[in-house]
Every structure is written in C-alpha cells, then in structure tokens.
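SAMPLE LOG
Freezer: B-3
Tube label: C17
Construct: single chain, 116 aa
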Amino acid sequence: METQKSVTTKGGTMRLGTYPCIIKANTLAYKVFGTASIDERHRHRYEFNNAYREQMLAAGFVVSGTSPDGELAEIVEIKDHPYMIGAQFHPELISRPLRPHPMFVGLVKAAMERKG
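STRUCTURE (predicted):
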C-alpha cells in the first residue's frame, strides 16, 4: 500500500509466501494431511511465543507442525480433542469449492463423526 512504503520499523519479521512445515507422526495434523511435509502460504508478522511452549505442552497443547528447524510452531492442537487444530498459515488461500483445503475437510468429517 502506498502509505506503508515508508514504514521501516514493523515490530517483527513479515512472513509472506509459501513456507515448508514438518508434521509430526501420530497427530491430528498428520491424519488431516496424510504426509510428513507440506508447503503453505503465510502473510503475517506474528509467531507462537516459544517462551510459553513448555507450559502449553504440559497443559495438553500439541505442536504438531513446525518449521524445518523445529523453532516455529506452524500447526497446533489440543490433545484428545475431537478437532481443535489451528495454523499459522492461511488454508483459505488455496481452498476452492470443489477442492477444499484438508483442514476444512477434516473439520467437516469431525463434525459428521460427532453427530453420528
């Protein structure tokens, strides 16, 4: 945007574009994607605060997808929840009516199983 061209201090690093994500086996994310590695689109300046990572893990949080170096949480879940999954990336950017993103398909499947 024209008004932002002169902004140099952004308060963080902009992640823009496609980035790799490594998915842990035996997680909801692995079940949803069916693979150990994906590439997803980002557009943000925020990240999960690793200062709270151990505390969150102890409370049942699962970091199921990370950057290749394991430092950035890309996908998170709540252990033993039917479908609490969140992502740093934007699944809506590649989702299409006849080809929905796997996270949306997983949500619908989980809802159908609960209704069962």
